[in-house]
Amino acid sequence: MDIGRRPCYDAPAMLLQNKTAIIFGVANQWSAGWHMAQAFHREGAHIVLTYQNERLEKNVRDLGAEIDAAVTGPCDVRQPEEIQAVYRFVEREAPEGLDVLVHSLAFAPKEALQGAYLDTSREAFATAMEVSVHSLAALAAPAAPLMAKRGGGSLITLTYLGAERVVPNYNVMGVAKAALEAAVRYLASDLGPQNIRVNAISAGPMKTLAASGISDFRTILKLVEERAPLRRNIDQDEVADTGVFLASHLSRGITGEVIHVDAGFHIMGM
User: Fold this and answer.
1) Cα gap 164→46, rounded to integer Å
2) Lowest mean pLDDT, pick from 6-15, 187-196, 252-261
3) Residue 51 appears among annotated catalytic residues
4) Is 9 considered catalytic here?
5) CA distance to 7, 45, 261, per residue, from 134 (Å)
6) Active-site residue among 9, 51, 87, 170?
7) What are the tens digits of pLDDT across the range 91-130?
């Protein structure tokens, strides 16, 4: 036996082998959801992607082709019939069930992301809450029976420090993210008996399409780089790798949590 040619350790198994994950909220190559899709694919998962509307369809289909993902029809989370159509697609694509759902979407009108929160209109508030918060429950409800077929699953959403502290110009999105984090806890309680875990990643500021709508975003990046314990900003791949952990059996005892991936910025007082 030629011991010298044998590896000194066994190559680790892919963490998401034979799992199916659906990811909501991919818009382009900078989207956190897209980086999560790539990381899940790397770990062996079969990916299903959605897109919001026709304007984003080509982007998402081109990205999906890179990882052999299945791409559904449009899914505006304010349209129940589009959500239903997505899950009919999932049932055909993965008849054995669903393992992971990633909720990587949020929206508020641009005018509500500047100035004072005091000036938030009723319409802007309702839009932010419907798209950014209620959508998690709206997507989780039809996912739950598909996950139950697999003996459980993992729901992952994305939040931000503006849910806990005042961030200038984040305004109504901070209020929506606070509600989203509360929704994570309530859904974790609702779905826990089915062995479905619900967690959130509180990501540091990243250069994404959504971030471009926040006034003076570059100042936020500079502040984090100066004051975070790691003295840098984070990137989408760090968020994606945390998503792999939450989607895998390694996090099987964790639910209802908000995990910060922000170079430690959230611990700082000043």
Assistant:
1) 34
2) 6-15
3) no
4) no
5) 50, 27, 24
6) 170
7) 999 999 999 999 999 999 999 999 999 999 999 999 999 9
